[in-house]
Design goal:
Elements lengths: L20 H14 L4 H4 L7 H14 L5 H11 L8 H12 L5 E3 L21 H12 L5 E5 L5 H9 L7 E5 L8 H10 L6 E3 L9 H10 L7 E5 L2 H5 L5 H13 L4 E8 L3 H4 L3 H8 L3 E3 L5 H13 L2 E3 L6 H12 L4 H15 L20 H11 L3 H5 L1 H8 E2 L8 E2 L2 E2 L7 H12 L5 E4 L10 E4 L4 H4 L1 H29 L10 H13 L3 H4 L3 H6 L3 H9 L6 H14 L17 E4 L2 E5 L3 E5 L2 E4 L5 H9 L36 H15 L8 H8 L52 E7 L14 E4 L15 E4 L8 E2 L3 E3 L12
Parallel strand pairs: 1-8, 2-6, 2-7, 3-4, 3-5, 5-6, 18-21
Antiparallel strand pairs: 9-10, 11-13, 12-13, 14-17, 15-16, 17-22, 18-19, 19-20
Length: 817
């Protein structure tokens, strides 16, 4: 760049912000104050043309009382990230000034990551000099609180600690923390005044509200050093604003009263999206009217680059490292493209420095910092969750729910600290918390118990900006907000239902209730709502209510049929009724061995075996029909030629027993399912079927006992006149839990009708069907009644159920009777 004379300030037009009149005016006002000009002459930034502003800069430098005006100008622009645009004269001034600065030695990584900068870390805090000076000046003559505001992740707390508190180390500083202990504010102030150390003391905002605090503070200041000042800081005001009580109003009232006292300064930090709620309080409204507001905006790309490079170029690092300028430029550009640049930079800066060898004896890596996916936090969270078991992954909503306060009315969410004991009995949540606090960058942060009354170890989000930058959290917040709105609507519906006498017709149907339950579960609201007995009743899933209804012995047959059809429509939840992921999964019932009288003439020994709780349903058989390796595959048919498809249309009867099935069809299904499940599934032999239908008892003629009992089977006596969904007569089940062994549909056995007691592999000349059906009376439903049928016949009321050896399901859970 061509060297320019110090008196020629046209080079200022090269600065990116020089085209913005208000920003230009703010910069010039700050420069004038640094150069020692009359504060009143530059207190209000003058909005002028670019040429007029250049003349103002020249005049300020010429009249400066500061001995090095060009160095001050150079440092101001460098801190904004524009050192590369300085003319040669200012570069020389900057170099001379830099050579006279004391050597500051830094060991370790010069960035705190997502944690805010502390006052002790002021030497590594760069890029906010302009805002730090403005905050100090606003406090110099303020008679109201000074408000520092900006979006989440704009660096408010870092500016307070590293930009302000580091300069006021001799003052008494009390930081009011809404997430702290529950001591009254008077006691906390007394503890702060009695502390020997002058550094910041974190206290909880719990005003006593008696109106005497201002007088007490004045008395405390009179008893202290005449030069000492008291700085009261309320950080995270949004935490108080979302509390249901009046603590925010009380705290701001007392801080407003304290701000008018001599030698008392008050700073309030609040997220920009809560500023509207904050100014409803008179003390803050007065601050805004008086112009005591410092807004923090997102830094530009050059400024972000300076924030990253300055700790490496302006400080003495041990061990020394080579500045990774290309990686720094890459990360700065990457961060500048994000909605919250400082959060993205903070998350990746430690990684950048580590790759460069900062704070480590190892050499720098040869590669550049890899570019991440746009959702840095979401990607790393997803990777971490994939590394843990399902139970730990499922704990994420349980961990997030207490940490975030969400308004159902669309207001901004905010984070809060929660006692770690909240998850004491949740092992999966504990494992997840440990992982999310240890990962890099961390998503959660622990705060250890501090040596003060009422304080315990707490957990909180690593940064409030994660509410926007962590996709999984943002999605959960949306679900929580929708869940809260839904809970409000449910409260109205519950009141109307109670008032109408709790009729079934007033309940929400499955189509409305199930999505509501899913949303409430995702929002971690369902269990809390179900603490109310009436709400728990109202929220009972419709399938559960229907299954409870069929378990009542007095439920009429017609109503049972309606329940079966309704379950078919909304999804039958019973195990062994519908396929799971497209594959039938039988619900097996174990039947003990014994001896059964077959056909009134032969006593046959029955080995222990397993039998399906229900007949094969339309939905299960439909899986066989639709599978590429199913019905049309020649492997499952004895003559290697699949027969004509029977046209089994389930319609709205997915949970009904499949009928019009021949013996050949049933055997082909068993062969296919055996190949898919990995163990042999077959039709039950005739003696097995009868032994199961007698509940493995010699004295039983029906599954429930020796005598017929009405209302326990779908036979002609029920009067329905057609098949019903499986398992609608639970009182008719066997002692081993097998249902529908009497009535509803005839069922194929593997055996031949001819007198033999050995299994049949080939198709018999005549097969055996058992159990009766809806067409016939109770006599045909006796356990010992047998009927013959041709194996190729597809009879309208005939279906089948499955059996297998006990060894094949040795690891499966037993079915209760």
């Amino acid at each position: 760049m061509t060297a320019l004379e110090p008196t020629d300030f046209r080079w200022l037009r090269r600065l990116p912000f020089w085209t913005q009149p208000q920003t230009r005016a703010t910069f010039v006002a700050d420069l004038g104050l640094q150069l020692g000009n009359d504060p009143d002459s530059v207190a209000t930034p003058r909005v002028a043309t670019a040429a007029e502003t250049e003349a103002d800069v020249a005049r300020l430098c010429a009249r400066a009382t500061h001995p090095e005006p060009l160095a001050v100008l150079a440092w101001s622009l460098t801190d904004l990230g524009h050192a590369d645009l300085l003319p040669e004269s200012l570069r020389r001034a900057l170099a001379a000034s830099r050579s006279r600065l004391p050597r500051v030695v830094i060991r370790g990584v010069p960035h705190p990551g997502l944690r805010a900068f502390r006052a002790s870390e002021a030497p590594i805090f760069f890029g906010r000099g302009l805002e730090s000076r403005r905050l100090s000046r606003l406090l110099a003559d303020a008679r109201t609180p000074v408000i520092v505001t900006g979006p989440a992740g704009s660096g408010k707390t870092s500016l307070l600690c590293a930009g302000l508190l580091a300069r006021r180390s001799t003052d008494r500083v009390v930081v009011l923390d809404p997430a702290g202990n529950a001591l009254p504010l008077r006691q906390q102030m007394a503890a702060a005044f009695g502390a020997a150390a002058a550094g910041p003391t974190e206290l909880a905002a719990e005003p006593d509200g008696d109106g005497s605090l201002a007088a007490w503070l004045a008395a405390g200041l009179r008893s202290s050093s005449r030069t000492a000042r008291l700085l009261l800081v309320l950080d995270d005001l949004e935490r108080l604003l979302m509390e249901p009580d009046a603590r925010a109003g009380e705290a701001l009232h007392l801080l407003g009263a304290a701000a008018v006292l001599p030698r008392v300064d008050v700073v309030v930090l609040v997220r920009a999206d809560f500023l509207g709620a904050a100014i409803a309080h008179p003390a803050l409204a007065a601050a805004i009217e008086a112009g005591r507001v410092l807004p923090l905006t997102a830094p530009s790309r050059p400024r972000l680059e300076w924030m990253l490079s300055a700790p490496l170029t302006e400080l003495a690092l041990e061990p020394p490292v080579q500045v990774p300028r290309e990686a720094i430029a890459m990360l700065a550009a990457e961060a500048a493209s994000r909605p919250l640049p400082l959060i993205h930079l903070a998350a990746r800066a430690p990684e950048l420095y580590a790759d460069a060898g900062v704070g480590s004896a190892r050499p720098a890596s040869a590669g550049l910092l890899p570019l991440p996916a746009p959702d840095l936090f979401g990607r790393r969270c997803a990777v971490a969750l994939r590394s843990v078991d399902r139970a730990t992954r499922a704990a994420l909503p349980r961990v997030l729910a207490p940490l975030v306060m969400v308004s159902p009315d669309g207001g901004p969410a905010r984070s809060r600290a929660v006692d770690l004991r909240h998850w004491h009995d949740d092992a999966a949540a504990g494992r997840l918390i440990d992982m999310l606090t240890r990962m890099q960058p961390p998503l959660l942060r622990r705060r250890d118990a501090q040596a003060r009354a009422g304080a315990d170890a707490t957990l909180e989000l690593a940064h409030g900006a994660l509410l926007l930058e962590w996709p999984q959290l943002a999605d959960w917040v949306d679900a929580r907000r929708e869940g809260l709105r839904l809970a409000r609507r449910l409260g109205i519906a519950l009141a109307e239902w109670r008032g109408a006498g709790r009729p079934n017709a007033g309940r929400w149907l499955h189509e409305q209730l199930e999505p509501a339950r899913v949303l409430l579960t995702a929002a971690q609201l369902l269990s809390d709502l179900e603490q109310d007995a009436d709400m728990a009743d109202f929220l009972t899933p419709e399938p559960v209510r229907l299954l409870c209804e069929i378990d009542q012995s007095g439920t009429p047959a017609a109503r049972r049929e309606d329940i079966g059809l309704r379950l078919a429509r909304i999804g039958d939840p019973r195990t062994g009724v519908l396929p799971v992921n497209g594959l039938p999964q039988p619900r097996w019932c174990r039947v003990p061995g014994g001896r059964v009288m077959l056909d009134g003439r032969r006593r046959v020994t029955v080995a222990p075996f397993a039998i399906g709780a229900y007949p094969v349903t339309h939905a299960q058989f439909d899986a066989f029909l639709r599978a590429p390796d199913g019905f049309a595959d020649p492997r499952w048919w004895s003559d290697a030629v699949p027969p004509r498809c029977g046209g089994w249309a389930s319609g709205q009867r997915a949970n009904h027993p499949v009928t019009q099935v021949s013996w050949l069809d049933a055997v082909a299904f068993c062969r296919w399912l055996s190949a898919r499940l990995g163990y042999e599934v077959r039709l039950p032999d005739e003696w097995e079927w009868q032994w199961a239908a007698q509940s493995a008892r010699d004295d039983f003629l029906y599954p429930w006992g020796p005598d017929w009992t009405s209302g326990r089977a779908n036979t002609d006596e029920a009067g329905v006149g057609r098949t019903m969904a499986v398992g609608l007569y639970p009182h008719g089940r066997s002692l081993q839990g097998v249902l529908d062994l009497a009535g509803n549909t005839w069922e194929w056995c593997r055996s031949a009708f001819a007198a033999q007691v050995r299994p049949t592999a080939a198709a018999p000349a005549a097969g055996v069907i058992r159990g009766g059906s809806w067409r016939v009376n109770r006599g045909f439903a006796r356990a010992d009644f047998r009927l013959d049928a041709l194996p190729e016949e597809r009879v309208g009321s005939t279906g089948f159920r499955l059996a297998c050896a006990l060894e094949a399901i040795a690891d499966a859970p037993a079915t209760a009777s």
